[in-house]
Each structure stands twice: as structure tokens, then as C-alpha cells.
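Human: If only I could read C-alpha cells as easily as an amino acid sequence. Underneath my words sits a plain record pairing an amino acid chain with its C-alpha cells. Take your time, and here it is.
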Amino acid sequence: MTNKEVIESIYNNDEKVIASLYHKYRSHFISWALVDYNISSDDSKDLFQEVMIVLVMKIQNKKIIEISTTLKTFIFGIGKQLIRNSFKLKYNRESRQQQFYQLSELSDDNAQIDKGYGLVALELSNMKTPCRYIIQAYYLENLSLKEIALSLGYKSDKSVKVQKYRCLKTLKDEIFKIKVK
């Protein structure tokens, strides 16, 4: 079957063709993800499931009308992109959480740390709505700047980034005022 015929069959929701592709590439994809990206077997299986969903959805939404490579290369390319995105998201979440908790540079004494987090939480709760929402959404809920911009009705994620910077500066200033007292 040619790529064009496969695309046409998937577009027409031919379950036999979709199942055939699924079974043909699944085990090799899982092995590849395990070896090349050190992804667990279960995560590799989930990832392949996602790849197939993306492939079928894009074809049925006419975002893919032609494939100039082999289907295997195309499927693995989608997988590679999903892996990179998941690594990027994981890294961004971890680094954002780490940045948030570094706001209060207190000693390693647990009581002092708890007091510092409490201070950050208290000052955060005293902030006005857009600032409080932006900081909580970005650092605690791990929402992207675009998602925050959409929820607040901002025109762009750059506006949210500038506002987040101002809000963090205000939060830091308030915390340091209290610590100096």
C-alpha cells in the first residue's frame, strides 16, 4: 500500500489499516524509545498510543495530506517530537518550581524553611488578583505563559511575562521588608 493509499484509508477511518500500522510499528517503536531515550516500557507503550492518535487526528483533520518519507520514519518523527516536548515540559516544570521555592533564601534549618514558605504563601495571598493568579498559575500549577494569557485575556504571553516579573519583584520586596523588621 502506498503512503497516499494509507492516508486515504486513515482519512476514511479504515480501522483495518490503522490496526495494521499499529501492530506493524509498535514493537520496534517501543524498543527504539527504550534504547535511544531510556523511556520505560509502559511509558513507551503510552507514547506509541499517543503517536498513533496524533497521526490519525492530523490525517482526519487534513493537516497531513502527503507524506514524503516512509510511514515508519514519519511515525518515529512524531514520537521523537512528543519525547522532546515531554522532556522540555518536565524540565520547565522542575525549574519553575525550583525558582519559586528559591524566592525565600533561608537557612537549611527546617523550622526556618517552613517559616519562609509560610511567609511566601502569606505574602502571595495578600497580593492583588492578577499578580497572585499569575504567580500561582505559573509556578504552582505549571501553566504556560500562553495559557495564563488566555485565561486573563491578555493579548500575548509576553505581556504575562512582563507582568510576572513585576509581580515577583513586588513579592520579593514585601518578603524582604518583613525579614528586615
